């Protein structure tokens, strides 16, 4: 492992600012390691030559006042990048080259970072294991044939394997936090409306949020302060006062009230998850937090609600892929035949399944029974959190009901795959911020994560709690570089 | 509740996704197990609950009605699978 790629983002920034390292040296180190790591299949599109060129240009005229000066990074292939292919992990966008840039990535380049390539993900972010990608499975660097989680699986794998110092993912039902948990990395899903959705390939518009993924909490905070901006181009972007999260980060969480929701003790949860949670509670107490038992009574209804709301919105969002204006087209005998063949050949099985569910729940005669019902239950779930936040400042739960599983283990049973997101989905439904931090290992040495959920717009508070707990936990990832020959 | 093959065919038509018999049977199986899971919501009484349509509790902001981007014709057409000068080309619609 090169001594550059093991460095955290914060250290790399410091070394570039003090001219101990150049952007070219740093970029070359991450490009070299990415080149040697093709077996992980973390990248869909590589842009190394351009990255090295941009690094050279940065070094010729360095602007060291920027927050990410000459830092190379790869991003999830759900963010539109001008002039660089953006596929969303789908055959239907295999040849799509955006003519515009997403706001979130533009914010990152404005602070001096350099794009290295686009990272693999589940097709249209629909999946929890990165196995629905048209571009194939991603390997978890923790162990061979282990899923990296999903949908931001290329992102979690690339950060854990140190192919990129940081990255961004998107989270609709857990797609940042679950893969972070599976790979021993940190992932933050911000409050809905914190990061602009402009230029992100849409999945479920009332739930989608972009967020940072990193090796540690401080790096996560720094990237969050870069990507979170108010944006006129996204009508659901919210104009609120954003902190300089990394500067205001503190380990002093004395007296903070942290809630433990009893409904998250789900049937069949492995003992090691229960133990991890108990350990987490002790860590929080050690940090000076006060632990309070709370109830979120509608927790069990979150997943069924999600599997109405998300597919309904997806079926509507994905109506645009018709083979006419962009993307893949299959020839047909007439216009309708062309549409049907294009969508049948262009979308993978999971995406088709969700479009069908969404179309059904929105169809005539079923709208009230399913979609309206789900919106009402969504309200009850949000009310649960509103009530809880009258008593506590944050909520602590496990991130996932298990550690990472083997590739192929759950692909034949959609419902068992969906259960992965049982602890993360309620947070999206209520529009709240949540962060997953690595907190321990299971018996096989696979990482396990804890989730801290905050009040809307209170990213600073959960980052602080995560920062304080991170020090106590002192987690070490076991990465052996098994994939490098 | 059970989703039969006829319903699958109907949804596939609405979704503009062609399905053959084999795919329809697989989909019926998958969708039935997913809806069995979704039916759990019927345990809850929600008659007096307001539906939540957006978690962002803000009203939409107005902005001035002025043109921000223009002359995008080339960009708009750039990714089309088939075009003829300034037009998207589709299979013949009018006889």
* pLDDT averaged residue by residue of chain A: 96
Name the CATH class of the domain at 5-43 in chain B: Mainly Alpha
Q: Sketch the major β-sheet of chain A.
A: 8 strands, mixed
Outline the low-pLDDT stretches of chain B: none
- The number of distinct helices of chain B, counting runs of at least 4 residues, comes to 3
Query: Which strand order do you get reading across the main beta sheet of chain A?
Result: 4-6-5-10-11-9-7-8
Beta fraction of the residues of chain B? under 5%
If you consult CATH, what is the topology of the domain at 5-43 in chain B? Histone, subunit A
Helical residue percent band of chain A:
25-40%
Question: N- to C-terminal separation of chain B?
Answer: 43 Å
The appropriate CATH architecture of the domain at 5-43 in chain B is Orthogonal Bundle
On the 0 to 100 scale, the average pLDDT of chain B is 90
* Low-confidence sequence ranges of chain A: none
What is the approximate shape of chain A? globular
Tally of helical segments of chain A: 15
- Largest inter-chain contact set: A-B, 72 and 50 residues
Q: What Rg of chain B, in angstroms, do the CA atoms define?
A: 23 Å
Total number of beta strands of chain B? 2
Give, in spatial order, the strands making up the sheet with the most strands of chain B. Answer: 1-2
What does this molecule look like?
The complex is a heterodimer of chains A (485) and B (95). With 485 residues, chain A is of the alpha/beta class. Chain A has a domain at 300-375. Chain A has helices at residues 9-17, 23-35, 48-60, 103-110, 153-160, 177-183, 217-227, 271-286, 302-317, 335-346, 349-362, 368-388, 414-418, 425-429, 459-473, and strands spanning 43-46, 72-76, 114-119, 166-171, 186-189, 209-214, 257-261, 290-294, 394-398, 434-441, 447-454. The two termini of chain A are 12 Å apart. Chain B has 95 residues and is mainly alpha-helical. Helices cover 36% and strands 4% of the residues of chain B. Chain B has 3 helices and 2 strands. The two termini of chain B are 43 Å apart. The chains are: A alpha/beta (485), B mainly alpha (95). At the A-B interface, α9, α10, α11, α12 and α13 of A face α1 and α2 of B.
């Amino acid at each position: 492992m090169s001594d550059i790629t093991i460095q955290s983002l914060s250290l790399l920034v410091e070394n570039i600012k003090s001219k101990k390292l150049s952007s070219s040296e740093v970029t070359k180190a991450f490009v070299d390691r990415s080149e040697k790591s093709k077996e992980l299949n973390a990248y869909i599109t590589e842009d190394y030559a351009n990255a090295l060129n941009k690094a050279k240009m940065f070094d010729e005229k360095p602007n060291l006042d920027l927050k990410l000066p000459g830092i190379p990074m790869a991003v999830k292939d759900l963010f539109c990048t001008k002039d660089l292919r953006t596929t969303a992990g789908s055959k239907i966008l295999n040849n799509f080259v955006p003519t515009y840039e997403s706001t979130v990535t533009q914010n990152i380049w404005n602070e001096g970072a350099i794009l290295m390539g686009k990272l693999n993900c589940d097709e249209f972010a629909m999946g929890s294991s990165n196995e629905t990608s048209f571009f194939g499975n991603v390997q978890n660097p923790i162990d061979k044939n282990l899923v990296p989680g999903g949908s931001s699986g290329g992102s979690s794998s690339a950060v854990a394997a140190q192919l990129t110092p940081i990255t961004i993912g998107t989270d609709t039902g857990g797609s940042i936090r679950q893969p972070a948990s599976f790979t021993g990395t940190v992932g933050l899903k911000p409050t809905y409306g914190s990061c602009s959705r402009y230029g992100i390939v849409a999945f479920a518009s009332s739930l989608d949020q972009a967020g940072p993924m990193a090796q540690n909490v401080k790096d996560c905070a720094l990237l969050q302060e870069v990507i979170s901006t108010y944006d006129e181009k996204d009508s659901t972007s919210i104009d609120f006062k954003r902190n300089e999260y990394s500067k205001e980060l503190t380990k002093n969480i004395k007296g903070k009230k942290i809630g433990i929701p009893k409904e998250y003790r789900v049937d069949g949860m492995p003992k090691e998850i229960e133990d991890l949670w108990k350990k987490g509670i002790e860590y929080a107490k050690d940090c000076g937090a006060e632990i309070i038992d709370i109830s979120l009574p509608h927790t069990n209804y979150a997943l069924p609600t999600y599997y109405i709301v998300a597919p309904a919105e997806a079926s509507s969002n994905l109506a645009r892929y018709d083979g006419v204006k962009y993307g893949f087209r299959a020839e047909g005998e007439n216009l309708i035949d062309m549409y049907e063949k294009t969508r049948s050949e262009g979308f993978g099985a999971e995406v088709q399944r969700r479009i069908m569910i969404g179309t059904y729940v929105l169809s005539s005669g079923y709208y009230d029974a399913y979609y309206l019902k789900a919106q009402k239950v969504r309200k009850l779930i949000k009310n649960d959190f509103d009530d809880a936040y009258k008593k506590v400042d944050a909520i602590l739960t496990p991130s996932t009901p298990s550690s990472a599983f083997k590739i192929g283990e759950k692909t034949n049973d959609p419902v068992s795959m969906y259960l992965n997101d049982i602890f993360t989905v309620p947070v999206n439904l209520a529009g709240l911020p949540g962060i997953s931090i690595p907190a321990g290992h299971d018996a096989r040495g696979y990482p396990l994560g804890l989730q801290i959920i905050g009040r809307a717009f209170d990213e600073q508070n959960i980052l602080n709690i995560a920062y304080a707990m991170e020090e106590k936990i002192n987690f070490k990832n076991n990465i052996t570089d098994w994939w490098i020959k | 509740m059970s989703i039969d093959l006829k319903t699958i065919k109907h949804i596939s038509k609405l979704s503009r996704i062609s399905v053959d018999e084999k795919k329809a049977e697989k989909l019926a199986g998958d969708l039935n197990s997913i809806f069995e899971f979704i039916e759990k919501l019927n345990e809850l009484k929600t008659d007096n609950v307001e539906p939540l349509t957006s978690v962002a509790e803000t009203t939409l902001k107005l902005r001035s009605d002025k043109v921000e981007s223009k002359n995008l014709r080339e960009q708009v057409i750039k990714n089309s699978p088939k075009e003829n000068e300034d037009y998207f080309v589709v299979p013949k619609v009018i006889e």
